[in-house]
Every structure is written in C-alpha cells, then in structure tokens.
Structures
1.
Amino acid sequence: MTTLTRPTDTLTRDALTVLQPGFVGTSAPDWLLRRIGEGLASVGLFGRNIASPEQLAALTAQLRAERDDVLVAIDEEGGDVTRLEVRSGSSFPGNHALGAVDDTGLTRDVAAELGRRLAACGVNLNWAPSADVNSNPDNPVIGVRSFGSDPLLVARHTAAYVEGLQSAGVAACTKHFPGHGDTAVDSHHDVPRIGVDPEVLRARDLAPFRAAIAAGSRAVMSAHILVPSLDAEYPATLSRRILTGVLREELGFDGLIVTDGMEMQAISATYGIERGSVLAIAAGADAICVGGGLADDDTVLRLRDALVGAVRSGELSEERLADAATRVRALAHWTSVSGVAERSGGAPGTEIGLVAARRALTVTRGESYAAPLTEAPFVAAFTPMANIAVGDETPWGVAAELRRLLPGTETGSFTGPDAGALALNEAGERSIVAVVRDAHRHPWMAEALDTLLSARPDTIVVEMGVPKSTPTGSLHIATHGAARVCGLAAAEVITGAT
C-alpha cells in the first residue's frame, strides 16, 4: 500500500488536470463546465464543435468564464487537416506544400497568420505541426501532412512553424514523437511498427523534434507506434524509455508531453483507455488526449478514477501525477500571459495562404497542351477513402473553384476498377479535368488515369496528394495538398486566371 501525502481532493484535481477531453455540440455542456470547476484544465475541440469564428469565440469565452486560464486545444494543421474550416476547406496550404516551396520565412508567416486566427477565436493550444519525416511513400496517414522526406528540410520548417504559431500566443504541440513517417499502418486502426536502428531513427526521425525543441515548442505529442530498437514492449505513448529516456533526458525537452488520442485502436484495442492512460502518465506523459471518438462525462470520470485508483494502489507514483498536473498548469499560465500583445502585430495579410498555395504548385505542360480552358469542363474526381485524421467532412478538389471561374462546370466522384470508364462516359465531349490524391498508392486510380488518357490525351490531371507518379496529361498540376486554396491555385492555372 502506498502512503498518500496529499488530500484526496487534491489527487482528484490533479487527475482531472491531466485530461484533455472533447465534447459534442457547439456550446459547452453542463457536465464539462462542472468538471472545469472541479479542476479540469484543458478542453479539446474538433470539427463538430465549430460552426463559425463568432460561434467559436463565444464557446471559448463560455469555457473561460469557468476558468480564465483553461487550455483550449485544437487539431488545426491547415491543409488537409482543418477544424476551423472543416466545412469549406482550409485557407492555408498544409505542410507538404510549404515544404515544396522551401521558404522558411513563408512557413513562419503562414503559421503566424493561422495562430492569429486561432487566438482571435480563443484557442491557445494547437496540436500541430506534424514533424514526421515522410520517408515511407506508402504511408497511409501522414503523406501531405509532412513537410517532406528530407529530415533537414522537415527540421527547418518545423522550427519555423513553431516560431510563427507561438508568436501569436498559441502553444505549438509538435507531433508525432518519435516520428510517424516510416509507417505503412495508420495508428487509428492498429499499432504501427518502425523497425530501424537507433542511429537511423536519431538521424532521420528525431531531427525535426530537436529543431522544434530548440525553437521553443511548448508541447510535444507522442505517437502510438512501436519502435523495437528503443522499446520492444511498449508503444511510444506508453514507453518510459522513449518519453522520459529519449524525449526528456536525451533531447532535453522540458515542456508538456501530450498523448495522441487514447481512443485510437493502437491503444484502446490493446490496453484499453483506462490502463493506457495510467501507463502513459507513468511513462512520462503529462496530458491525456481523448475526445475524438469518446466525448462524454463518463469517459472523463473513467479516466479520472483510473488515475486516482492507480495512485492509491501504488501503480502510479503520486509525485509523477503531480508533476504532470504542474506542467499542464504551467502551459496554461504561459498561454494566459504570453503573446497577447503580439497578436495585434503586423500580419503578412489574410491572403498569405493563397500566396503560399500558388507558390507550391508544380506545373508540367505536355506536348498536347494547347491553351487554358475557356469552356466549362467535366471534373472527374477519383476519390480514395479518407483517413480518420483528415476525415470525410471537408470538401476537396478543384470543381468548386472551376465552377466559379467557368460557370457550368460539372463534376462526378469515381472509385474502383471501373472508375476511368465511368468518368469517360459521364464526361461526354467535354474537356476533362481528372483530380487524384496519392495516385501512386492506389492502383485503381492509376489505371483510371491510363484509361482516360488513352481515350482523351488532352485530359488535365491535378494531383492533390504526394506527387510520386510521373506527370501525365496535357497539363499536370501537383498542388502538394488538398486545401481549398490549393484547389483555387490549380483552377487559376487551368483557366489562365493568374
């Protein structure tokens, strides 16, 4: 039996303090406000919680009426992963587009403008940037969320993003430690495994995290990945060797360690969220992210009680839980006092996202290219299954922007082995714009393009994922991401509007 040195109510408050739960709705439910009053220090927001900037500002004000230094977190990477603009598509290109431009000043400016928009809505912790080196081209969950496959490029842009975001008073949470780029499995569904030597991992995957720490990243998010060369038993989120040994002691990180979503299958289907949360805090994590799928009071109480019970049984050190809670409160204090004056500083302009998207385009004109389109085309969108991080709520493609520039533009979505033939049939005699996303990862998509180009070599191809395939079509545009501004930039080239 362990001897508790502090009152039970203090222990319970600490257990609540280390949780970052979500909820359902566009206003805070009573149970959430009650838990904030009892010690909950963080709340996570998702697309379901956001209808407009005005509504979001009212929501965060409602939370701060209960606790003025509450951490309000969001998964706003820009690009494909957006919560602020979940129903329209992002005004900012994602990491891969910024890496393609390779101008750290631009990356800093984009992150600063994104940070200003978050701060204006009352959000002060962003679960971004993704510092993963996309070394596996078949990666199903990172892809365009990464700045690229070159560790040094990823490192310098990760640092620039952290600096830009935090200049607006919004804490960066650099993810997914120790690096999710060399995986072929999505940790939303299973436990990915990275089987490289420690030397490779340190030179490749850890480089961007070193840069983020040097740039002052206030938080780091762990990944639910197994790295046997560092810990053969536990995934990183639950590994003391990785969180404490590598991140704290080797890399010298002293900020907040946040877990990735604990309801993801890599944890929930193997350890369960209660035991997983206990193991994570014991390993060195300070905050438990939960709420993407489990977003209710029962989840909060289950995790609170699991942590309190683990301290009482001696499985979890009381001091470790207290240290984690102290780090959460320290970040809450930083967000409440830092960057407030800077939020009104000079901005690069609200069009910075479109400027970046235009610069990120790679345009290849084939021999059959004649001139920009002047008549409404048919847009054939070859649509893969969206990964959970991106979601299927956010529109993507070029049809909406082409319709604005060329009224009468029509579109269809096609998937599977007959996609090319179906698209040809529906297009009729109209010019075709084929839109793909990671064509190199989907054999059916590559086959559909071949079918289109064999019959219609004048087809325009827009690749909105990682452009690994050889450019084809009369005009090939690689946007390096599927944000709304990426589609607009591509439509401008297609129509000659630039």
2.
Amino acid sequence: MGSTSAENNGAENSDAGVGRRDLIKRSAALGLIAVPSMGMLSACASGGGDETSEDTKGKTSKDNPFGVKKGSKLDVVIFKGGYGDEYAKVWEASFQKKWGVTSSHTGTQEITGKLQPRFNGGNPPDIVDNSGAQKIKIDVLYKNGQLLDLAAVLDAPSVDDPSKKVRDTLIPGTLDAGMQEGKIVALNYIYTVWGLWYSGKLFKEKGWEEPKTWDDFLAICKDAKSQGIGGLAHQGKYPYYINVAIMDLIAKTGGLEAMKAIDNLEPNAFVGSDAAKAAVEAVYEVVEKGYLLPGTNGLTHTESQTRWNQYKAAFITCGSWLENEQLKQTPADFDMRFMPMPLLPDSAMPYEAIRAGSGEPFIIPSKAKNLAGAQEFMRMMLSREWSTLFAKEANSLTILKDGVDPSVQLRPGTQSTVEASKAAGDNTFRFLYTEWYSEMDTAIQNASNELMAKRIQPAEWLKRAQAAVNEAAKDPAAKNNRRE
C-alpha cells in the first residue's frame, strides 16, 4: 500500500485547493522537473527514554531555528508500504551526521494497532508517517488535540534558500490534504495521482488502445472477458480503491462543483446529483456485465494487484504508489502505464483531467518528546537534498517544487504519471472529505463494498452515501471545513 494503500491511502494556499492559478503554477512546477525518464517499539516504549521536551531543546539560531539538541534522540515511525522505509533510514543517517541526533526507527503497516496505545498514554513517537489501511484517522487525532500545528515548520526558512519560507517552496495546492479547520496538522509529502493502470505489453499484444471514453473502457473489458481475462481487478477488501473510479467519474462528469458539493456536505451531494448517479451506474455496469476479475471482491490490495501483474486483468484502480508497491511482482517487460479515468457522455472535464495532489501524511504528535528534532527533521524533508534522496529510494516525486535532481531516473509507471500530470495542466482535482470526515469516508466505502458484491443497487448506494453526508454535516467542524 502506498499513500493510502487502502488510503492513502491527501491547505493548499486556499480551501479550494484546485484554484486555476495555483494549478497552472503546479503544472509549470512539474515542467521544471527535467526527468530524462525520471523493530516496532512496544506500546509503552519511547525512543526518547525518560526525556521530556525540555530535555531535548537546545539553543536556537539562524541555522537551527527550532533548537535541535545534539545528543538527543528522535523516535521515527514510518508506514512500510508502497514506498518502503529505506528512504527514511537514509534521512535519519543524514540527520545524525548533521545534528548528532540518533534515531529509533520503526517500519510497520500496523500504525493504529501499534501507535494508538502510545497516543492514548501520552507517549507518542516524535514523527510518524501515518498512512496505509491501518492509519490513525487524522480528524480524530486533531479533535483530541494530539497533533502539532505545523505552521512553525512551514513558516521556517527553507534549508535551500533561507530567504524563502518552507511553504513558499512547495507545489501549490499540496498542503490542503493536511488541513483541519484551517490549520495544517499533517504534511502530505508525496506528489500523487490516482486513476487507472494497465500493462503496455498486454495492450500491445491485444491491440487495445488506451480508452478515453467509458464505452471504450467497457469494450476492452468485454474483449478481455471473451479471452478469459478480467476487465477490472478490484481490491475488494479495501473499497477505497473502487471509490477512486466512482469519485473520479463524479468529478469529471459534474466538474469541480460536483466535487465541492461532496466536500461541503451539500444536501444534494449524491441524491439529486446527475453526475453521482451516472458515475455509480457506470461502475456498477462493470459488475453487472461480469467484467470484474473473478474472486476479486475477496482479495486484498496486493493480492488483486499481483493478479493484475500476472495479466489476469486488463485494468486496476490505484494511486501512484502502485509501481513501488508491486516491484517484486511486476515482470520486467510489463510496461506499467497510468491513465486518467475515461469519460462519461457530456463530462464537464476533459479526458486528461486527473485526481492529483499530495499523499503520505507525516505528523508530529503534540506530546512528542523531541519536538525540536521532529520539526527540524520535517524542515529537512523539504530540502532538495532529502527530496532527491526520497526519489532515488522510493521512485516518486515530492511536493517540493523542482525538488528532484534531473539525474534521477524514474521507472516507467511513475514516469507515465509525470507525463499525465503535465498533460492535465490545470485540470486536476482532489477530494478532501476523506481527511475531514473519516466516518463519512468509511460509510461510503462500505456502501461501495456492498455495490461491488451486487448486494445493493446504485440507487441504494446513492442513499447511503447521502446519509453519510447528512450525518457528517452535524459535525461542529463542518462549518470550518469549507471549499469555495
């Protein structure tokens, strides 16, 4: 799993997060990236021992804005999913060399299981990559007062250019996913796109062209079925993934207004929305016509993705961590390719439009023992040196503008996402309800699970999704989580 590998599975300069001017800037920023092809601690343990935040605080200076203390310790927990955790070990070695701070490193997929007791006990790690299927819900942590406001990090001088604030060195729009009630409390570090994936090799062998319309997509699924191949591989145990298709179709069909209606919890976000009706009916047609990979509803994300890597299905939905997550299962000549969601008739957005933004949220707990070290660590994450180290180790772009050295060679699938981002230009979008209202997100995922198993019809899916919206609208935070 990657950024939300069953999430991922992300306060971009404005609540909308997809303003036209910012997106043009984002596209330009991507164009500057010249790519030739571009031991878990126990619940009661702590990397800081008996240290307190005062014990780990040193003297501040121009070069040490947070007062990192030499000889202190940093407790780092990394979600070990699609991007692995080797990149963090490289960062930690660099951090120790510069600051004399040793790190306690943990790579795990059991974020909630391992860390919830520590948060509850007031003994959390110092910095956490809070991602994956078992991530701790950001909105819940925020409401419990357990997250540090990252304003000080974002307003600190950039490592590369001290005349600029850190926030001014980032791709516009990439901070939004970490916002709660106007505050940035999570740093979504990786520039991510979501959509459909296919094998260039399989498509060439079958004579298939990348489908730009939903009808063309269904035609390939039909042809695949006739040859004993699934049309769509669905990560059934994690319905987050099929929501990539449903929600992308809603946004592309109804435009940004349809997307904002959902994030803003409008009474007609789903029931009464022509775009939502068309989208869920389109995805259900895949189920009705038997185009799903057989048995796919019972598979985990990696099981489904591995079958796709074995040419047992033509398409799969995922975010851009997919290539990294499947490195060991992907044949050398697979030729992994990313593509935007195909269009339904009368779509408001063009085919090239994609869901894009930031993923893989890093957080600093408010009760972290080494707050100074954690904040400096995050500031260094947003340096060109560390961004390039990440790209080399994890084969992905970060949210730092022009943050990857041109010498870094990206793998085919990731390179295709760079090209798709450039082609999309200002036609990108990103839902935020997943971060703002986790219970609503879960309810919609549950409805999608029922839909894909043919236990409910599209009309019932719409009712359940709208009920989830109506329930979320009762949340006091809703008045502050608004997109204009």
3.
Amino acid sequence: MKSGKVMTALLSGCLALTLVLAPVASAAESAKAASNEDLINEVMQYLENYNLSGVDKDTLIRGAIDGMVNTLDDPYSQYFDANEAADFSHQVDLEFVGIGVRLQYTATELYIEEVIAGSPAEKAGLKRGDVILKVDGVPVEETEGDELSGAPGTKVTLLVLRDGVSKSIRVTREEIASTAVTGQIIGPKIAYVSLSGFTQTADEEFAQVLKKMRTAGMKSMVLDLRDNVGGYMDSAYNIASMFMDKGIMMYTSDQSGKLTPVTITNGSKIGVPVVILTNAYTASASEALTGALRDNKIATVVGTRSFGKARIQSLLPMSNGDMLKLTTQKYLTPTKEDFNHIGLTPTIEVQGKTAQLITALKIAGLSTVEASGDNHILDINGVPFAGNVGLIKQGNTIYASARVLSALVEGEIAWDAKNKKVVVTNVAGVSSGFSIATKAALSKDGETYIDLNAFKQKFPTLAWTYNATQNKLKLSVK
C-alpha cells in the first residue's frame, strides 16, 4: 500500500490514510485519564461479576469502543477489527468476490446492465439485458439481495429470461479486481472516460487511458463520475493535476477551523473541452475533483446534484492491529463552497442515465447521435453503455423514454401534473405537449414515455425504426 495515501468515504466507503502519534499529556491530564480508565474498568468488572446472563469481555470492549465512536454522531467514523479493515480496503480498491455483473433494479424486475469483461459471468454466457428470475431456485423477489456474492470457487445458478426464453446458467464465483478507469473514442474524437473509483492505482490508470485518448486524437472529453463514491484523495489530486497546470484544487480545515489551500503547481493543462457527468452517488473524492474542475473553469457539469460528502477520514492504527476510521478534516471547493449534506449543483441538470449521457456527448461535440436498444440495454453510435432507450410496445404503438427523446432534440422536459401531460420545449422555446389521456404519452413506474409517431409530428428531425424480430428500437436526429 502506498504511504501517505488519503482517501474519502461515502457511508462505510473510503478513508484517508494518515498516521497520528499520541500527544504528550500533562500530569493533570494523565491523572484524569487514569481516573476515567479506572471508572470504565470498574463498570466492566461489575458487569463480568454480577450480570445475570454473563458477559464476554471482548464483546464488552468492542461495545464500549463502538459506543464512544457513535457518540460523535458521524456516519463516516467507524472502528474496524483487523478483518473488517481488510474487507474495507478491498472495497475501496474495487476488489470483491462475485460473478462480475452490474445489476439494475426496477419496480418489477432485476436485470443485468453490464457484464464485466473477463468475468465469470461473461465466461458462463450471461449477457447484458438478461432478466434474473431466480437465484439458486429462489425467486428474486424473495431473495435478500446479496446472493450473487460468496466464497471463491462456490457456484450459483441463475434462471434468466432472454428474448422471451428462460435459460438456466451456472456461474462460479471468483475474486474480481475491477479496473477503475476505462476509455474509448466516440464519434469525432470525443473521449468517453469512465472513472468508477479512486483506488490506489486509479491515477496511474487514468494517465495510461489519457495517453491512449491523446494518441487517438482526442478533441474533447466526457468524464463519467456517476456512481463513483470516492476513494483515495491523493489519487483525485493526481488526476486533477492532469487537467490543470496550477491552481487551487480545494481548501481543507481541521479542528482549528483554519482553511488551508491544497494547490497544484506542477500539473498540465488538459487542453480540450471537458464535460463531467454526476449523479446522487457521485461522492467524496469524486466531488472534490468535480468541484476543482468546475471552479477552475475547466469542465461543464451535467447530470444531477451530487451526494454531498465534504469530509475526510483518517485511518488510525491501533496497538492490537485494529483500525479507527475517524473524520479529521473537512474540505471546500476552490470557491470555498462547503457542500456537505448539500451536494454540488450541476451546470446543466438532466434526469435519467441515458439522457445525461446523450446531453454530455452533444455538448462535447457529437452532432449525430444514434441511440439503440430496448428497455434494458443501450448502444450509442454502436458503442455499448449502461442505460436504455425506454422501449415500450402497446399494440401497434411504439413508445420511448420522454427524457431520451428530449435529450436527442436538445429540448427541456417538464411534467404538467394538472393536465397530465409531458411537455418538451425545443431550443427556440416552443413547447409541445403529449397527453396521457390521448395516449400520446403513458406513465409507468414513475417514468413517462411518448408515442414516437406523435413525437415525430412535433419534432420532424427525429428518425426511428423498430425491429419487431429483435424487439430493438433505433433513434436518431437528422
């Protein structure tokens, strides 16, 4: 593990690795501490000797420690025994045991949104879009939600629905170390870079991906920080240094309350327009990077308000090999915004995973966007992404996600609750309504969908085709 690594946390997520030495106490302080220790020992002795049901001393000690930490009323401070600390470290570095899929829950089903390359799931033949019906014979609605995890080498049997046909697939769980950074060129030299976590090696991975994107002729970048709950803060610092040559990344403060600037002095300018994608699970180190690039006028932020965790934890080693994760600092953006429990507001607010991606790519310069898929999967210009086009077929009428359609025509979307219709306003300010009553729109599971023929009448630049055999929809704007 690299020394001096600092990390941030989302709930039980990430931390900052620092070593804190015990302060030298005065004689009076030592006497008071000894008195307090005697009191604690006295209570423990009474509990051991007289409690009716008996007690376990180790359990008492852990309970006392957890009680002290819990009095802080801080969801990020936590005590770990050695095994818990190791598990936490694996979590931060995106290391886990499982089958290698990312799942998407809806109100009525659970399906595979992404299959990790080289994973047991891929080897077994699972595909994105597969709907999971049963896990080891148990219907998914009766499961606890963690049945896909387990010990390495153990097997799990999934009953999945694919193209209307049920299929049983047996998968062997393995240890999986996810790559934190991936990148690919989309359309006219737009680099799409996904950063899923600030692991110990995320900065090195980012440097390698950035080099590949530059070699491929990158002219702009979409940096996807959605669902990135944070990680090592110095990885975030090093990545920020690849976007800006100099300036303030953030301000930090400790118990003293004094603000200290964290400056970049030997970085390098990214040299191309940048768009950052955020959502409610963009947290901690992700927010630090977002705030740095936003406040330094390097990036436009698209998506929804971020999580709102502007606190840094230190990992303190205990004499018995355990660890204490303790909040020791807060941080502010370069413009001194304290967004803790608030989140960072995007430059352009867009709801919906696919609509966010389309909007970001358009801002980055993708003039021709072709979105294809169904209600589970998504391809943008032939490249697979997480998301879907919201395909619904009712009789001879084909519907698609209202948010996706609005993003394709660069419109703004709103819901008219009084008249029960979805309203899309084009760039010229002209609004078009699609009513539930006339079946030009429909509402399902909290989402709205628009009849494609009705939408094309109002927005003739839309082109669409539906393949009934494959149940696939293709959308584009001329």
4.
Amino acid sequence: MRGHPWVTLITVAVGVMMVALDGTIVAIANPAIQKDLHASFADVQWITNGYFLALAVSLITAGKLGDRFGHRQTFLIGVTGFAAASGAIGLSSTIAMVVVFRVLQGLFGALLMPAALGLLRATFPAEKLNMAIGIWGMVIGASTAGGPILGGVLVEHVNWQSVFFINVPVGALALVLGLLILLDHRAENAPRSFDIPGIALLSGAMFCLVWALIKAPAWGWGDGKTWAFLAGSVLGFVLFSVWETKVKEPLIPLGLFRSVPLSAGVVLMVLMAIAFLGGLFFVTFYLQNVHGLSPISAGLHLLPLTGMMIVGSPLAGALITKAGPRIPLAGGMAVTALAMFGMSTLDTGTGSATMSVWFALLGLGLAPVMVGATEVIVGNAPMELSGVAGGLQQAAMQIGGSLGTAVLGGVMASKVDHALPGNWKDAGLPPLTPAQADQASEAVQVGVAPVPKGVPAEVAAKITSVAHDTFISGMSLASLVAAGVAVVAVLVALLTKRGVNAEAGAGVGHI
C-alpha cells in the first residue's frame, strides 16, 4: 500500500482539495467577514490579495524546496501549516489577524501544491501519468464547484469561521494518510543554494505594485505616495531581472522567456486571471448585498460557472490535442470577453436565468485556457526546466488574480466616488458631511446601502435604490474593463503554439 500510485493520488488530492476549496469558499464568506469585523473595502480585498500574493511569491521557491529536501516532507509541512493557519483565521477577532493568517495560508499552500504534483510525477509510470492528472483535475474542479455551495451552507447555518475550521479535519486526514502512504522522492540534480535576494526583490516588487493599486482610490492616482510605490515596484522588477542574470541558481531562469510562445502563455494566464478572479470578486457582493440572496443561494447561482469549467475542461483537452492550443485558447478568451460584457449588463432586476447564462459562458470560456496552459508554457520550456515552468504558470495565475482584484477594485472605487454624490443629490436626499460621504462610499463599494438607524421607510428606500444603482454602475464598468482585458488576451493567445516537450511535460501546470 505504501507508495502505491493510486493511493498516493488520493492522499495528495485530499491535501490540495483544501487549497482548491479555499478560493471559492472565501469569496462566499467575504460579505459576512466584512460585516462581522467591520472591515473596509480595501481590507476585504486583502483577504483575497494576501492569499494570492503569498502563493504567487512562493510557488517557484516552494518547488525548489521540494526538489532539495524531498516532496514528501514539503507536502506534509504544507498540509499541516495550511490547516493550522485555517484554524487560526477562524479564531481571529480582527480583520488584521485574518489577513495575516491568510498570508500564512498562501505560503503553506504554495509548499503543498508543487510537492503534490512532484509526488505524482515520481510515483506514476509515464503511460498512466496523464490519466492520473485527468482524475486530479476533476477532483480540483469538483472542489472548486462545491466551494460556493459548501461555503453558503456553512456561512448561513453556522458562521463564517466554520469556512476555515473545516480545513482542520481535512488537513489532519491528509497528514495521517501522507505519513502512512507517501514515499520520499528527490530530484537527482537538486539545487544546492537558494536565490534569497531574488525572492526578496520579486516579493518587494509585487507588494509595492498591489499596495499602490489598492491604496490609489484613497490616496488619489496623482498622489506622490501612489507613484512612489509604483516606482518602487518598477525598480524592484528591474533589479530582480538584473540579479537573475548574475546568480548561479536563479529563482526564475530568464532564458525561459526567449521562447515567444512560452512568454505568451504566461501573459495569457495573467490576463485570464485578471478578468476572471477580478470580476468574480464583485459577483458575491452583487448576489448577496444587492439581490439579497442568502450565502447558500449565492453559491448555487455560481454553480453554472464552476460546473461548466468541469464539463468544458475534458472537451477542451480533446480539442487542444487534435487542433493545437492556439485556436481553442483564442476562442476561449473570446467567449470569456463575451461573458464579461454580458455581466456588465446585470442590474438590480436581472433574473437568475440570465445570470446563469453569463456565468456558464464564463466557465466555458475559461476551460480551454486552464487546460491549454500546460502545453503552451511547459511544452515550450526545456525539459530540465519543466518544473520551474509549471511553477511559473501557477504563479502567473495567482499574480493575475491579485492584480485583477486590485485593478478592478480601483475601477469600482473610483466610479462610486465619482457617481455617488450626484446620484445622492438627484434623489433629493439630505447632503452628507465629508466624513459621512466617505463612509457611504465604502459601504456602496460592496453593495451595502448606508441607511442610518431610525430613518423613515421612504428615505431608507431611496438610499437603498441610490446605493444599489451606484454599485451596479461600478460593477458594470469593472466588468467592461475585464472584457477589454480578455480581448487583449485573445490577441496574446494567437502567439501560442504546441511545444516540442508538450507530451513529456503534460503533467505539469494543471494545478
């Protein structure tokens, strides 16, 4: 039993299921967290951004740690740390504590994911690896699809803390199975050093970028602090690039990017994640705060999206095998652009059937991009760098998700700040003081109507109408920006092609 390929697959799938569940579960829980902990709009963004950033920064480094010290040990540490951080979030009493432990979740999740894939590649014979990865992908897809519903049940019938507590027994099960079943596997040519300056430069550059994007609505896009952080980000990326050409074992070998298809694949993943994860950020607030749906109903409304990703992924895989990645990837991003445009037409009176059509189209458009990224990025990398390329693909998606939440969050905040005063005045509501206006704007950015206690029902109805209409205008603009990003991604997809190492590297990057 110990070291058996299929039991190994079950073991690592249990571990990574936590990471897959966490994205969609937390999206459903965000409104409840925001209300319970009195968090600001930017605070709620950091619940997502902190997790994505930690994952993005750490994935490639974590892959090298697995190569150096063994994938079994790295996986077990990742599972244990992820479960412990989840429990700590459930015990948190402030939004700052939630964000800190979300960052820790991301760091341990980064340890877990490449190690799990490394264990599969080392355990399965070549002729069965693709089958294992296919089953693996279905487990992750099912976890993603089940996240909104499970999250809705937990938030509605228990509390938002239970969304995180559920990871503790799952992590304990994965740890026990891992200790009993997993065998240690180490790369023959394991790295003997770590690019600490490279890690620090890349982390600092990405932090400065996302921090500037999140704070810009409050500071102002022309403010010196905003530009200082943006300049710091550019400087960090430049210094990182220079350093990587000089260090013996770089964090990311820049020679990888000499391949145009590989570079296009990485850019495509970033753009896809900006459009998808950035757009999805507002949908949970729209469903719960504007339409007044319960968390479980909101989760059920999102099921067409994740369900179509499960259905579309094997179909996309078969199509890419026959026709190559270029046309399916370009077509997928075109459908994604159409779906985001459709989501820009949602309003306070949109019915469930119409929402489902756009959500399902979004899932169908994303499926080819998720599947095709393996062939494009890993298949165009030299075989000896296939693991780094797999980590790069995952990191690109995490960075894109973080940037998407920040960029589209900035678009939403700017639109609300601009439109709310006029809409408020046009409705004949009493004028707000600057402090009241700021509080009202923050509430409206998440779809909440800032109705003071004790106001007459007629005034409360007017405030609610203004708040929801203003939120809808912001979400509509953010969705149009996401659609524009997806259109650019269509053009980038046309630069991709099947890689010479695609078959040998087929297992990398699906997670």
